[in-house]
Specification:
Layout lengths: L2 H29 L3 H28 L3
Helix pairs in contact: 1-2
Length: 65
């Protein structure tokens, strides 16, 4: 495997694992003791940060340089 392909695969896997973890944590906070309104600020943070994660993946691995 070429280093470029390894970088693309590992970047995608890493981005997906971070997304699953953060969204699972947000769901857990919202359905737990904090309730929907207590978990809402964390959801807002997730909605802002996750596109940044995927933009960094695109910028690092997929964009033609």
């Amino acid at each position: 495997m070429t280093p470029v392909l390894v970088e693309k695969i590992s970047g995608l896997i890493g981005s997906l694992i971070v997304s699953i973890f953060v969204l699972g944590l947000a769901e857990s906070i919202s359905s737990g003791a904090a309730g929907f309104w207590g978990g809402l600020p964390f959801w807002v943070i997730c909605i802002v940060v996750l596109p940044l994660v995927f933009y960094d993946f695109w910028d690092t691995c997929l964009r033609k340089k």
